[in-house]
Design a protein that fits this description.
217 residues, 7-stranded mixed beta sheet, 7 helices, alpha+beta
Length: 217
């Protein structure tokens, strides 16, 4: 059964806080180091999803993290810094097959990182932040699909899912920007129309006043 905010079985739970100060010492770029130290509130190694299902129930968290698998990290951010930048930094410090969730200001972002292997280049995909229902679990596992799959297959599915989520967010934000632009343009047109209408009213009033002045004279 799953436990906590993720729909991941309890048997994979690690719940290990990562030492931020020790990690930051390995960042060479001064700007990146400052961002890492200033913007990250905490990094937690939440789960280690492994293939050895028969023995998993007997593994302690310390034993789990020594196993090959998918490491699930949760990063609590102080501000919404680029998730791509943060993922590049974190995976350079912890170059493990991983899924990373970023939590900030009531929103969620996700990242998947697959290290280079067997001559293939590493793969990474991140989403921007988006609202999520805190009453619901963050879905990492797909029990129907993942039942008989290896961690490699599960990880590839997660990469595809995050890519799809990234596209959805990009489309939604582009459409929102389009709607705002259209609304602004309409508002500008309304303003121009109002100014023109006001000038016409003034002209009409002046004309009527002139006519009355002529008649009185």
């Amino acid at each position: 059964m799953s436990e906590g905010r993720y729909n991941i079985p309890k048997k994979y739970k690690v719940d290990k806080g990562m030492p931020l100060e020790a990690l930051s010492q390995h960042i060479d770029n001064d700007k990146c180091k400052r961002i890492f130290e200033t913007e990250i509130a905490s990094v937690t190694w939440c789960y280690q999803i492994i293939d050895d299902k028969e023995q998993t129930e007997q593994l302690t968290p310390t034993m789990l993290i020594r196993q090959q698998g998918i490491s699930v990290f949760e990063v609590s951010m102080k501000h919404k810094v680029s998730t791509e930048l943060m993922t590049e930094m974190l995976t350079s410090l912890i170059p493990k097959r991983s899924i990373i969730t970023y939590l900030c200001e009531g929103e969620l972002a996700m990242a998947v990182y697959i290290p280079s292997q067997n001559g293939y280049a590493s793969k990474m995909c991140t989403t921007d932040y988006y609202p999520f229902d805190t009453e619901k679990m963050i879905e990492i596992m797909n029990y129907e699909y993942d039942a008989d799959k290896t961690v490699d297959q599960i990880h590839k599915r997660m990469l595809a899912m995050v890519r799809q989520q990234k596209r959805i967010i990009m489309v939604e934000k582009a459409f929102e920007s389009l709607e705002q632009h259209s609304a602004t343009k309409k508002s500008d047109l309304d303003y121009v129309f109002d100014e023109e209408a006001l000038d016409k009213i003034r002209e009409d009033a002046d004309f009527v006043q002139e006519q009355l002045h002529v008649q009185v004279s």
